[in-house]
């Protein structure tokens, strides 16, 4: 990430940057957090930046606002941190998640009395707001409701009702408006015709804060174990270590204009895809995953995807484009993506064809918690090779421009991203934001596994374009898929 030059009025600049931690676009929040973190770690700007961060912490109106500020400190090197008591004295809206963040930052949270971190049990006369019910799976991910329903069914405690009550109390206290979709970031006509966006309006923070307050009363008044509340409240963590560091790079030069030519010349799709794969740098690495948004000046909504498989000799591709499997990475302890990759067995991800079968080389990594600031990455997916392709102890490690899968001290795969005319808007019908991604891995390692199992490398390819005939009306998805092998090709669909 490029360094930010502060204007003459440094205090104003810091205030504006910290305000971006509440910006409706999560990607902007992440960029602002990176800037503030880097300023705190810089000795020349540390004192001023730390004071500004602590002031933002004290003025935080909601529990989720506090956690956003603490997440910046989670990423700061130990030597640059302010004292724990200085931080704690500035927190006015406590939560279990804030306690967890403090413990991860300092090794100790100092303890909190949860009796003042909630509104008391919802009275019998309370009824959920129609607005709350309508938007509780739109302003925040549906997973929050699913988690509360699951824990309520397991315990018999009124988690979902309490969530609505806490939300109402926060609305009354803050005077928050009952906002809907942030139309000011999107063309209303396009939104009506199926374009949505990665947005987090102010109401999202009320829902998240009410969620945190619900677990506070569960722990303090209902006897719910705090250790069990930890994974639930971590679901609203803004970011996790490692993932916070991954900056976008430039679109890879070897892609040239192949993705755009695929859109312009769909009848030559197979030949163009083969040429694109062959055009990659010959550096001993195999391209194992690619998601390439089409140039925004050519097609506003469109992408080319390549997913590698190891297929049996008799494999015939299924009619339906296979979904990329998900590899869950439990990151609740340590709030970091830098940890061992969970083992994946071939039978867990095997794709049955019309004849034979295929093993996906990669799965899409899903850390839990995943980090609310990184929706652009998660909508595209985080491709990493499955553990059976690279037998042995493998470890995920992140740095400033990539995610690596490592064995001992050797990188066996690398995943990188780029942002191509990026905006938070994307088609609702299966689309994603304009975030490109590609993964490469050690070719000798991949071919060794292919030889051992009697398989060959193949590609599942997909071209998608969303278009509409006029300047209004619904966006229609045009899609072509095919399977490519080193020796023969599958029929385009």
Main pleated-sheet profile? 10 strands, antiparallel
How many beta strands in the DSSP annotation? 15
Approximate shape? globular
* Radius of gyration computed on alpha carbons: 24 Å
Point out poorly predicted stretches.
1-8, 488-493
Give the proportion of residues in helices.
25-40%
- Count of individual domains: 3
Mean pLDDT: 91
So how many helices? 17
Distance between the termini: 41 Å
Backbone structural class:
alpha+beta
Q: Which percent range describes the beta-strand content?
A: 15-25%
Model description:
The chain is of the alpha+beta class and 493 residues long. The protein folds into 3 domains: 103 residues; 109 residues, no CATH class; 241 residues, no CATH class. The chain has 17 helices and 15 strands. The strands form 3 sheets. Strands 2, 3, 5, 6, 9, 10, 11, 13, 14 and 15 form a 10-stranded antiparallel β-sheet that branches. Strands 4-7-8 form a 3-stranded mixed β-sheet, with no helix packed on it. α2 crosses α3, α2 packs across α4 and α9 crosses α11.
